[in-house]
Design a protein that fits this description.
Layout lengths: L1 E5 L7 H4 L4 H12 L4 E5 L15 E4 L11 H16 L3 E4 L1 H9 L3 E4 L5 E9 L12 E8 L1 E5 L5 E6 L2 E7 L3 E4 L7 H10 L1 H4 L1 H10 L6 H17 L1
Parallel strand pairs: 1-2, 1-3, 3-4, 4-11
Antiparallel strand pairs: 5-8, 6-7, 6-9, 9-10, 10-11
Amino acid sequence: MHLAILMTNTDESEFAARYPKDGEKFTDLIQLARPDWRCSVFSVKDGDFPADLSEFDGVMITGSPASVRSGAAWVDQLLELIRQMHAQELPTFGACFGHQAIAVALGGELIHNPQGWVHGLTRNRMIHRPDWTRDLPDEVKLYGSHCEQVGRLPEGATQIAAADATITGFTIGQHIYTTQHHPEMEPHFIKALTEEMKDVLGPEVHATAMTSLQEQSDQAAFAESLARFFETAGQS
């Protein structure tokens, strides 16, 4: 299977330069479950978009510190591309920014989290189970980092996961799968990111995040669900 990774991460800081880019992280994520699958990376935040999506079996949209509501030209172009992919029922997965972009592109709403930053290991209740999620635990642990969230789902979407009152995942048909969180992040990276963001997060959120990171995420189980999603969507 050949997937396109639409890389939206705008962080070009010295901190980011010390770690693999998101294209590599998402490739590693899917290859954790399917080592022989291929990925091609497009830095859409720099205006690099696929010329022909028919060359791909599916698409993954990454996270980003940018806001879907920024009005940036590349974001508007991405939202239009999402609408095209939805119309074609091209299997599409979105994580964090990708989750939010899919929601907004298809008529949903994005809001600021009333409690501020969510950061660290998150616990997500599965409230609806597409077949490809059958092996995920009832409470899925994923690393997260966000201060915006989906406030209203697009028409036709089904919420599949929740953390407190936050929509942390949804599906549309068999061809769209999302998570508000970061299944691509490794433990060493989220710990370093937490320290890097200490001043932004504030002492309380930072301390809570560091405590939460004593446990690891359900990355392998989520990677398997993601691979099964693309396999299921490809058969529909």
